Automatic annotation (TrEMBL):
Biased composition (Polar residues): 11-26, 34-61
GO cellular component, as recorded: cytosol; perinuclear endoplasmic reticulum; plasma membrane
Any GO MF annotation of the entry: sterol binding
Family (UniProt): Belongs to the OSBP family.
Comp. bias regions, Basic and acidic residues: 1-10
Top-level taxon of origin: Eukaryota
Alphabetized UniProt keyword annotations: Lipid transport, Lipid-binding, Transport
Region of interest (Disordered), ranges: 1-66, 330-350
InterPro entries: OSBP_sf, Oxysterol-bd, Oxysterol-bd_CS
GO biological process, one term: lipid transport
Keyword match Transport: yes
Protein name per its UniProtKB record: Oxysterol-binding protein
Length: 499
């Protein structure tokens, strides 16, 4: 595996990475009249900067999450062929394949998992609601919001090392805290736990990756469990499949596909959410729709939207009207008309993602032909995505939330365990634009992990996670990892040296 990666890195170097300049991808909007301040090695650009132009002096609103950008823009991947690396892996389990660092984004999978709680306010709303159907609507919307940051994020997060951890504490709203740990390496298993005054959110992810002729599929196996504390209600679901297309030729793009079943084990409500494949002419690209059923299997609410942008609900007494309007506006059979509509939808989606102040009437234009008449019905907006910054394309298409995940703020070194992902040198070097340094550190860490595994095998010892323990759970079919809570005592004296 090491020789495969080193060969790939040589290919990458010959493609021109040694001539990489951190400024090569900067937007043409940048000019010499812009002065920035507050730039450090690990924290990038902050919001405290001003325009020197006397005509228009503005101060951007600081991000509520942290830094505004990464230290340097992303390098260009245009000269790199994913297929040249992956063609030898067809039919294999990709989690066991060592991939070149050029295909990574500067985040660990542990950090990427914490993006699931960006819209935790939906769980707060669910917990405060006295209507059980409304609670399920918010929880179902949260499951779509969990994966919204995947849109156009085609870089691979770094595989966590065994024993690696990551913590995230937010004071937004009533606040939440989240902790993740890599509890197993073969097979790879990441356990997570988040809590707030309103909810607990826990589970373990067993990612399964499969390579096909022209695509890669990622199935996040494992059960996610939410408990709403005010109502003592437990909800469970499993993730849907992510499919990345055009790995041989063409522009890479992804979709989320499959049926997600969300169960409330306390009141018997079930939400069945259909994450639709794009289909012919991409008419259903990113679309999600489904129903909430009561104990008698009666439909009590209809949910629809796009996992990239919004979720809305429609009362079932209006659903017949929805079907009638749908029949009155059949889709045109002409492929030219479909192609034109697809381009219009793509344009509107980009406009929606970038402008927070888009009127609500425009968001319906973001839908496929199926949804052209829903604005005439009494729908209710449940969730809408936070627009990405204008410069997101220069920084791995990160959301503003993701920009701050690897930020090493003042005082963190004294409070975090040495196993925290923020201290990984390969991720830090990639974030700073040092491709060769990141590749070297990635290989070094993987070799170190292999040597430690050999020592354990020789001594016949077994790895025991520090912060999670394997326990059966009444609502989880597979092995479940329970959080010990001792992490927050901050006694990190037993943490292993993995970096």
């Amino acid at each position: 595996m090491v020789s495969t990666e080193l060969h790939a890195e040589k290919q990458i170097q010959s493609a021109g990475t040694r001539n990489y300049s951190p400024s090569q991808n900067k937007s043409s909007k940048d000019d010499s009249s812009t002065e920035t301040a507050g730039i450090t090695e690990t924290t990038g650009h902050y919001a405290s900067f001003s325009m020197s132009s006397s005509e228009n002096e503005t101060t951007p609103v600081p991000s509520k999450w942290g830094r505004m950008t990464l230290p340097v823009p992303q390098f260009s991947r245009n000269d790199f062929s994913v297929w040249s690396i992956l063609k030898q892996c067809i039919g294999k389990e990709l989690s066991k394949i060592t991939m070149p660092v050029v295909f990574n984004e500067p985040l660990s999978f542990l950090q990427r998992l914490c993006e699931n709680v960006e819209y935790s306010y939906l769980l707060e709303k669910a917990n405060m609601s006295d209507n059980p159907v409304e609670r399920m609507e918010y929880v179902a919307s949260f499951t779509a919001a969990c994966i919204s940051s995947n849109w156009e994020r085609l870089g691979k997060p770094f595989n966590p090392l065994l024993g690696e951890t990551y913590e995230l504490i937010s004071k937004e709203g009533e606040g939440f805290r989240m902790m993740t740990e890599q509890v197993s390496h073969h097979p790879p298993v990441t356990a997570f736990y988040a809590d707030s005054p309103h909810f607990t959110f826990t589970g373990a992810v067993h990612p399964k990756l499969k390579l096909w002729a022209r695509s890669v599929e990622i199935k996040p196996e494992g059960t996610a469990i939410i408990k709403l504390l005010r109502h003592n209600e437990t909800y469970t679901w499993s993730g849907v499949t992510t499919c990345v297309h055009n790995i041989i030729v063409g522009k890479l793009w992804m979709e989320q596909c499959g049926i997600m079943e969300i169960k409330c084990h306390t009141n018997g409500l079930v939400a069945e959410m259909n994450f639709k494949p794009a289909g012919w002419y991409s008419k259903d690209l990113h679309c999600v729709e489904g129903f909430i059923f009561d104990k008698q299997k009666t439909k009590v609410s209809f949910l629809y939207g796009k996992w990239t942008s919004f979720m809305r609900k429609l009362d079932c007494e209006h659903y017949d009207e929805y079907l009638r309007l749908k029949e009155l506006n059949p889709q045109q059979n002409s492929s030219d008309s479909r192609t034109s509509q697809q381009k219009d939808n793509s344009s509107l989606l980009n406009k929606f993602q970038r402008k927070k102040s888009v009127p609500t009437t425009l968001e319906n234009g973001d839908k496929s032909d199926n949804y052209q008449c829903l604005e005439d019905l009494p729908t209710t907006l449940l969730w809408e995505v936070e627009p990405r910054p204008d410069w997101a394309s220069e920084y791995y298409n990160f959301t503003q939330y993701a920009m701050a995940l690897n930020e090493l703020q003042e005082g963190m070194k004294e409070t975090l365990p040495c196993t925290d992902s923020r201290f990984r040198p390969d991720i830090r070097k990639l974030e700073e634009g040092d491709i060769d340094g990141a590749a070297f550190e990635k290989n070094r860490l993987e070799e170190k992990q292999r040597e430690v595994r050999k020592i354990r095998k020789r001594d016949k010892t077994t790895w025991v996670p520090l912060w999670f323990e394997s326990k059966p759970h009444p609502y989880a079919k597979e092995e479940f990892w329970s959080f010990k809570n001792s992490y927050w005592d901050r006694n990190f004296s037993n943490c292993p040296d993995i970096f």
